[in-house]
């Protein structure tokens, strides 16, 4: 017994860590190329309308759809051959059935907890009732700007910046490093909005401040989204969370301050409680075992003296 304990080894490993590493230069170059391709696709049209004009939105839908077809080629072409033999390509993209229901429900509920304060503020205005109104959903799906903000933008951005980039980054860097690297491409890709604001006549200083604020917000969200993808191994998790965050936007603290004193104190407690609860539950709610994720996040493994390997997620 003592001899076994001395020779057995405990360590953490994921499927993606059992294959040869991809060059970091190749990985970074591919992610940079995908970022440039995504942003460039928004400006290839000779269009005099602003970004919210239906003609502009429709053309950009087409552009990013093409990018979504091209981006997986980078992942397929530059991934480790051994990894491609061990994992189906659709699973590498986070498109799989195992753990799908949990990937839909748990990250979404976890993110609602994070936004507990703003959600409670919305309840004060009874605006939540519209989500149970069929006419609201009917009109929303006829509104091209609503579709852009809640469907096409989250779908295309999460597919390119998470489903296609993360599996590549994870082949060169550790999971935690990957979570912090990938969002940098995502955040910088949103800086282009400063050009649109300037063309609309906005003051440079104001445009810069707004764009930098958006850069900070999108980068922070990118950390969370990348973490969800790596931990759950599902594309659906960051996609739905992205759509929800687009709906919520940044918290409206001005509306919070307009409440009566006792309501304001209660709502502030909701803000703080929601954030603290999110922090405490984040690790537990994203356990890879819940989502049957054996690909991206390390599993606890034990190497026995007879060279057999036993792993638990």
Automatic annotation (TrEMBL):
Q: Name one Pfam family in it.
A: Rce1-like
Q: Where can this protein be found?
A: Endoplasmic reticulum membrane
Task: Give the species this sequence originates from.
Answer: Glossina pallidipes
Domain of life from the UniProt record: Eukaryota
Query: What is the protein's name according to its record?
Result: CAAX prenyl protease 2
**Could you tell me which InterPro entries the record lists for this protein?**
Rce1 (IPR039731), Rce1/LyrA-like_dom (IPR003675)
Q: Which family does it belong to?
A: Belongs to the peptidase U48 family.
Identify the PANTHER family for this entry: CAAX PRENYL PROTEASE 2, PROTEASE U48 CAAX PRENYL PROTEASE RCE1
